Prior knowledge:
Residues 138-216 form the CR-type domain. By secondary structure, the chain is of the alpha+beta class.
Amino acid sequence: MAKQDYYQTLGVPKDASAEAIKKAYRAAAMKFHPDRNAGDKAAEHKFKEISEAYEILKDEQKRAAYDRYGHAAFENGAGARPGGGFGAGAGFGAGGFADIFEEMFGEFVGGRGRAQAQTRGGDLRYNMQITLEEAFAGKTATVRVPSSVKCEDCAGSGGEKGTHPVSCPVCHGSGRTRMTQGFFTMERTCTHCAGTGRVIEKPCKSCGGSGRTRRDKSLNVNVPPGVEDGTRIRLAGEGEAGLRGSPPGDLYIFLSIEPHRLFERDGADLHVKVPIPMVTAALGGPIEVPGIDGARVRLQIPAGAQSGQQFRLKGKGMSILRQHHRGDFYVHLAVETPVHLTKKQQELLGEFDKAGGKGKSHSPEAEGFFAKVKEFWQELKE
Length: 382
């Protein structure tokens, strides 16, 4: 079953603001949360759908990818996880309404390690343009990506060599601080340690205590045969380095295919328009057309060929992703009327026209059309 549009799932228009999306999610999550609908499988399924939709639409990068590519932007191994990735899908656990309250009130109600999850490295996007021939055959490309990498001097710890992080003196290692106000006790992320529970007394001089530095890195990207325009390739762990040794993000390669000067692609099939001389169309004869694989394809044109006539060459089209067979190749004829005729050539064509066809028309379609026109005019006169 096809997935429902994420905007429809949340009941918001495609140009909805982030605040409107958040408000719609809160209302729907409160209504369908399993804690309020015990044993109701339909409510449980609906809660999963709205959670998945909100996971995508609340993030600017994910939302932009979804707006352009739809659900296809999150296929092939993109699972949901806190704080990173283009992945869709969100479940629910034993936290009950605390999950919803955390989304509503942010840091003031138990974050359960959200700050630590946010230290994961950011995902990166790289746009790669390839030719149709490269999409057919596949290729290995080397790309240079500006990124954050693990600091070599401190091995990503953020501290000087020989030192170790110590327990945060403010939150005593919990990563959370509490504040009592009247009858309420509110808990929030410790600002001193950013929720990690540990602090670095002697930060690394090279990275300033972050555990990462800015640097371009070169990566080899394998583009498989048969990719289409908009295909996304995910390189796990090749995004930005995480803060102070946290896991890195992912790198996403988005492919776009250049228009070809000869071929038009339609999925796995290829089409080419071939102009042929009038004489070849009339008498028939062989022609050669190039294949996407560089081979020369020989085609026998039958006598009396017409413009628009097509020939199908099975298995001569594009490669198909992760399959061993190919699409088809369609050759479309375009009969070319001769131009720049010499006087002699004009005379010969005139003689040809006068010679007739011994009871048969040389241009049956034209004669049939004008016969209908004559009948039409005759009917108008009556």
